[in-house]
Write a structure and sequence with these properties.
The structure is a homodimer. Chain A is of the alpha/beta class. Chain A is built from 14 helices and 16 strands. Chain A starts with 12 loop residues before the first strand and ends with a strand.
């Protein structure tokens, strides 16, 4: 076979880089390192036309001298204006900015479509895991029933450590910060907001419908107690912060919440700071992808993949095909943790309350401690509203020694 | 956001379908079912221009009336001539034919490049798992160090059942045939030839070098005994038929062999007929993808993904960038099973033989049974040639009651 590159224009592609932080610097390095490979793959060399940072560079000048813009400056303003200006000027854009897409996706996709240029963002969700490309291209015309995953590495690291060592949340978070797995201000990660932005993007792509960050409900892991994880082990469950976007009765549901997975679940084995995403649909079945969800070089590598795809040729720009409503109340199984006075009739009363709300119990672990007992159960699937009502009623039972605690449970078979 | 499709020619894309077996029929069904989605994604409708089967259709006529050819007839002749004719006539081709690509890839890629048309084949490896797209596009310019995976569902189903029930190979194979997981003639699957063809394709793409089926060494699972799996459990190992393509001292090594994986290995949890592939490289780290590796509708779904990508726009055609030599002798750890007379000094003699060949032992399980003993050990990594020589020497030890048995072992950390 010949070694020559495929035919293509020979002038170098001028790339304008916005931002040179951790990822920007790694991208610059990678671009130099893989320049030959880019030329071999696309028939064109690549050059940095200019870099915009807080201290150097002029956006208009960089835009004028660039054929393609790579946005790695983060934030939503003035980033949004820059990306819109680039698209309107006919420049394809590659970004790793999840908040920008989750909050202003509709506007940005419309601008790209109008200008007839690509807007690529593989690195915005799960870094190097090619989930965006897979949903947009491999399954771009397939019927997707559900997309779910572990899309935040910080929280998965924390939960993995808590489960492995029985250590409390605060202690493990502090360690994660020491190791650089968690930021000085980890709130966006641990409260689920980061994962929510990523799920808004995946839901939009999977269901071809506008999804804004404000339509994604999310809970974090701050309230998880080590003994929840201990009981869960007895029940064969592992705890993950799960993002899930799925079709529900004519609409979609997009949520982020901590939940227990049974051993058979494809995401159950995902440990530490890794990310993983599963896509399910009637025709293709189920595909799961896992890998490092962060890291400067990993993210830069995903960015370069997008740059090369743009130089090599066209790919579809997201198009809205439907405007699906968001369904709020969906069925789920739950882990329920009750501290009760160890007196006759308590279990019966609890069972009655659950029965009255059509909540049926799948498995129970009872544990006496002095005059107290802990009752830990896993329910079958029921509407969340029903379960919430049942929990409300249980809280009224006088023998209850503490507020009921509950966590979602996902079946491996699902 | 607007609901209109992106701009594009409005005449339907005429598709010529070669073959209407299990996958071909599913593709026809899917094409009808997802026609609207294809139009929305690409701006063009799709129509079947004609179908070629043993009993109906004329190739020249179908080619003349088609804009794109989908090859699902299988086999290498006359399929090869048809695909070459289509490419030379300027028609992009989508195929699911692994043998065709593994045996005639060089010729076919050259023809596609010459004609400047796409040749896509996502469905040829691991069906719906987007491994071809990921290696060619996401990691098209990245440095790939290693690609390995479980790319044959029949053998993984058999090994999973053998491990779960301790049943012998023949019994489980018969069951797999009853359930339709194995063909009436399963030899290509169980002897590793099917996996070898897939690894030849992945190696070519990952390393941008010509790799022919004849350059892939392969072993099957026919000789696996249930007690190997029993001992392996004690050592925390699970058995898989692994395909591995990796850079080795200036060249590459492409092989298929049964091997044990430690629990931490990304492929250890892959059960039943599922496939999974891991790609590793210095910049992106490691990405693992898993899903159903076969099935008519799953395979057709991957084919449709390729068809849509072609209609939507261009993507790179494989280009050779180097001609890497195949490295035959590579290091590996091994599981070694010895049946010996239970006499003093035997272990010492065995240890001496291993030591003389620089084979060091990592863990040992000894089990006495009457006047016999079974010695099962896992070694550290050593060159396969060294290990083979050691096994040869061990076979000479008079106290040995049976020929030594051995199986590759892969570290999770690797």
């Amino acid at each position: 076979m010949s070694e020559e590159a495929p035919p293509g224009k020979s002038a170098p592609v001028q790339i304008g880089l916005l931002g040179r932080g951790n990822v920007g610097a790694a991208f610059e390095e990678l671009l130099a390192e893989r320049g030959e490979a880019v030329a071999a793959a696309t028939g064109r060399r690549v050059e940095l036309a200019g870099v915009l940072t807080r201290s150097e560079g002029d956006f208009e000048q960089i835009l004028a001298g660039s054929e393609l813009i790579v946005e790695l400056m983060g934030g939503t303003e003035p980033t949004r204006e820059y990306v819109l200006a680039a698209l309107r000027a006919g420049r394809p854009v590659v970004t790793a900015n999840k908040q920008l897409l989750a909050q202003h996706g509709a506007e940005l996709f419309a601008a790209a479509r109008e200008a007839g240029v690509q807007l690529r963002f593989e690195a915005a969700v799960a870094a190097v895991i090619p989930i965006v490309r897979t949903i947009q291209e491999s399954f771009g015309v397939a019927e997707v029933a559900r997309v779910f995953g572990i899309v935040n590495g910080t929280t998965n690291f924390i939960l993995t450590e808590m489960a492995a060592r029985g250590a409390p949340y605060d202690e493990v978070l502090a360690e994660a910060q020491r190791l650089g797995y968690a930021e000085a201000d980890p709130s966006e990660d641990v409260n689920g907001a980061d994962a929510a932005a990523k799920m808004a993007i995946l839901a939009r792509l999977a269901f071809h419908t506008p999804v804004g960050l404000d339509q994604v409900s999310f809970e974090g892991i701050e309230a998880i107690a080590p003994d929840d994880l201990a009981y869960a082990k007895e029940l064969g469950l592992s705890l993950k912060l799960l993002g899930i976007a799925e079709r529900r009765s004519g609409g979609i549901s997009v949520r982020v919440f901590p939940c227990f997975l049974y051993g058979g679940h494809p995401l159950a084995p995902i440990q530490g700071s890794f990310n993983a995403v599963t896509v399910q649909g009637p025709a293709f079945g189920e595909v799961t992808m896992s890998g490092p969800g962060a890291g400067g070089m990993q993210t830069a590598s995903a960015v370069l993949g997008d740059v090369v795809s743009i130089i090599a040729g066209e790919a579809p720009v997201h198009v809205t095909r439907a405007e699906l409503p968001i369904v709020a109340d969906v069925p789920s199984a739950f882990y329920l943790h009750l501290e009760v006075a160890d007196q006759p009739g308590v279990l019966a009363r609890i069972a009655t309350v659950l029965g009255d709300h059509d909540v049926s119990v799948k498995s129970v672990v009872q544990r006496g401690s002095g005059d107290e007992a802990r009752l830990v159960m896993v329910t079958h699937e029921c509407l969340e509203s029903r379960f919430a009502a049942a929990v409300g009623a249980l809280a009224e039972i006088p023998e209850l020694r503490a507020a009921p605690r509950y966590i979602h449970v996902i079946e491996g078979a699902e």
